[in-house]
Input
Amino acid sequence: MTMCAKIMIVEDNPDIRQALEVQLRTAAYKTVWAEDASGAVALCARESPDLILLDLSLVGGDGFMVMERLKQLSAHTPIIVLSARDPDLVEGHALQLGAVAFIAKPWRMEELLSVIKEHVADENSLLCRSGSK
Amino acid sequence: MVTAIPDEQIRALLVFPNLDRALEIRSLLTKTDAEMFVLYRAERAGEAIRRVSNDEYHVVITDLDLPDSSCPELISGIRKTSPHIPIVVVSDREDVDAGLKVVQSGAQEYIERRLLNPGLLLRLVRFAIERARQSRALASISSHQIELKDQFLSQFSHELRSPITAIYQFITILMDGLAGELTQEQRDYLEISLRNVNLMRDMVRDLMDVTRAQTGKLTIRPRCTSVVTMISETIVALQTTAKARNITLAPVDLRYVPPIMADPGRIHQVLNNLCDNALKFCRAGDTISLAARVFEQDSEFVCISVGDTGCGISKEGRQQVFEYLYQDEAGLNYNHKGLGIGLAICKELVTQHGGHIWVESEPGIGSLFSFLLPRFRLLDVMSPLISIRDAAANRTYLLTIEVRNGPKAAAPLSESTRQRIWECLERSSRSGCEVTLPRMSSSPERELIFVVTNSFEGNTEQQVIGRLMKDAQIDDSLVELRISTQSLTMSRTNCDKADQHVDTNNYTDIECAIKSLAQR
Output
């Protein structure tokens, strides 16, 4: 199966990270991951991902702060926030800061993949056709 | 207001209409130590309430009989601004009932004037001040403890969500076959695990909601919501549990139910809690029915109900069933305990929507929980943004599509408009070929079709829209308004059916276009 778009996972819980990797691999996405704030910024600069899945509770920095830094680094990379925090308290702020979607944990795989597809679909299909990345 | 126990002088407000009485009290207070008190006098209750709210006093000593109000009214007025100031009431009469009444109203002491002597009055005042200080300290500790409890519950439920997420995701990974084929037995066991982890997830959510409700932070985000969809999704989610226990869970009477103005997530929660509650009180062979209809007594509301043929609720239980931590004995007999908060949260949520919830039940026959929610009215929420051409028509339809053409597309609808509309379908597309829509024709609930499009590579807008409408089985005659975001500098022939052409160079927001339509 051809690997298509590259998705960066920013998640400090290794079990949840692994679950994400399994689900994204199934949908033929390439994944890279970071577990803390500084790692996320460095990885984003190095890997230029097509989309970022971002947890808000991270070691070494608040998720919102990380999001702002990622946006400064790569303004056009869509960020989907994936969080266990109370959506009433954080969803609005996340969208205001530029997240394209907020998904509450635990999530349904179909929902996650459908939201990802909305934001990387075009590039994904082109990359698949060219068979590289 | 009293803020601290006095170390030196006690500022006392004497509320006595009769000057002689006031002088008598002053004489008693100053006999032991002339320097201990600084005394002020008010003749009437109104004046006393004003002075207490403006100045700081350590104690109020008042006559039982006042010219402008009753003593309990004076106490209640003072308590509004100074909940902890000690109040000592002096009476000319031997009236135990009156004494009891003022103490119940919040006075610290009640004493008959004939019994007073300098030592006794001084003790009464000092003790009243000390008790008030202790009461303030207790209130402060209690408030701090409530705050700590709320913080703990909030942190606790957040921490619980991480392991629940990991368990849930791996169960679903296994059930989706991502780690290999499963035997039927393995699948059955995973379904049991999934059911239980969902139960845990719901309990954590309820726990968070209790904290929010008690601190006034329980929020709802109402929008146009389909009752039929809510009921269908609830049934799908709980069907496995119901089937496992041989309980029938089914919708009834859903022929025409208009949409409601409600938070879909919250209504899911209400329906889920009510069905979960019904499942607790049902045995094998019982039935749970979900129904909805326009409320007969007020057509501005939709009545949704969850009925069961379970064991029913006693008369006492019916009165308390929506209270926090209430557990009905019948439920305990069935060995299905819960946290006792699910129904209380239902009441909170329905009330926040401007609705009402109640229960009818007969022990041994079953229960019927019903709740009212306000109907969605497109005209109410869109007005004054748009004017619908035929406001009298009952069946106008709504669908918003924004077909983007790369980064040059028009700015998307704002969140506030998005929440007002029935359904917002956004698709990114260069050619328009990849865009699909769900079938819309069978739904009686849509109110206005509102098409927003852009230009496509290799296809005219009309071709794309035509195909979309055909696929989604949308009758062209139902399209009330069309807006094209195509630039005016381009040919209009491709979108000549549009009512409004929007130049994206001039309009930064589709809402501007909607407003301009409204002004035509």
